[in-house]
Amino acid sequence: MFLGEYQHSLDEKGRITIPAKFREEIGYKFVATKGLDNCIFLYPQDEWQLIEKKLRSLPFTRADVRSFVRFFFSGAAELDLDRQGRSVLPLNLREYAGIDRDVIIIGVGTRVEIWSIEKWTDYNENAQSSYEEIAESLVDLGI
């Protein structure tokens, strides 16, 4: 399970260092794609295969399904870790997430998210004000 928050910076070649605590679980080959809220999602291969299977089972006759599947898969890239635990983030994903240099890498259970530090700060400030309301609504979902 991916947990925690880490601050890192891209190097001049667009590489990011994956936190040591995430490396074993993410593996040396993993998938990156456009995430929700303008971040980048990273998935271990086995988790990606589960998501892919679920998305393939959705009815492609629905416009919202087609739209989401296009968005999700068109931004996806299979990435590799080098011996130092670094990986090159594709330019299209960096542009989508607004990442220039400084990033926050967070563990979110089954995936890792990479955020520009500015967007993460904004997101936290906005979400924090409604944190209790969100928690209450999750109780309605049985969590």
TrEMBL record:
<dbReference type="InterPro" id="IPR038619">
    <property type="entry name" value="MraZ_sf"/>
</dbReference>
<dbReference type="InterPro" id="IPR035642">
    <property type="entry name" value="MraZ_N"/>
</dbReference>
<dbReference type="InterPro" id="IPR020603">
    <property type="entry name" value="MraZ_dom"/>
</dbReference>
<comment type="similarity">
    <text>Belongs to the MraZ family.</text>
</comment>
<dbReference type="InterPro" id="IPR003444">
    <property type="entry name" value="MraZ"/>
</dbReference>
<dbReference type="InterPro" id="IPR037914">
    <property type="entry name" value="SpoVT-AbrB_sf"/>
</dbReference>
<comment type="subunit">
    <text>Forms oligomers.</text>
</comment>
<dbReference type="GO" id="GO:0009295">
    <property type="term" value="C:nucleoid"/>
</dbReference>
<dbReference type="GO" id="GO:0000976">
    <property type="term" value="F:transcription cis-regulatory region binding"/>
</dbReference>
<dbReference type="Pfam" id="PF02381">
    <property type="entry name" value="MraZ"/>
</dbReference>
<dbReference type="InterPro" id="IPR035644">
    <property type="entry name" value="MraZ_C"/>
</dbReference>
<keyword id="KW-0804">Transcription</keyword>
<protein>
    <recommendedName>
        <fullName>Transcriptional regulator MraZ</fullName>
    </recommendedName>
</protein>
<dbReference type="InterPro" id="IPR007159">
    <property type="entry name" value="SpoVT-AbrB_dom"/>
</dbReference>
<feature type="domain" description="SpoVT-AbrB">
    <location>
        <begin position="76"/>
        <end position="119"/>
    </location>
</feature>
<dbReference type="GO" id="GO:0005737">
    <property type="term" value="C:cytoplasm"/>
</dbReference>
<keyword id="KW-0805">Transcription regulation</keyword>
<dbReference type="GO" id="GO:0003700">
    <property type="term" value="F:DNA-binding transcription factor activity"/>
</dbReference>
<dbReference type="GO" id="GO:2000143">
    <property type="term" value="P:negative regulation of DNA-templated transcription initiation"/>
</dbReference>
<keyword id="KW-0238">DNA-binding</keyword>
<feature type="domain" description="SpoVT-AbrB">
    <location>
        <begin position="5"/>
        <end position="47"/>
    </location>
</feature>
<keyword id="KW-0677">Repeat</keyword>
<keyword id="KW-0963">Cytoplasm</keyword>
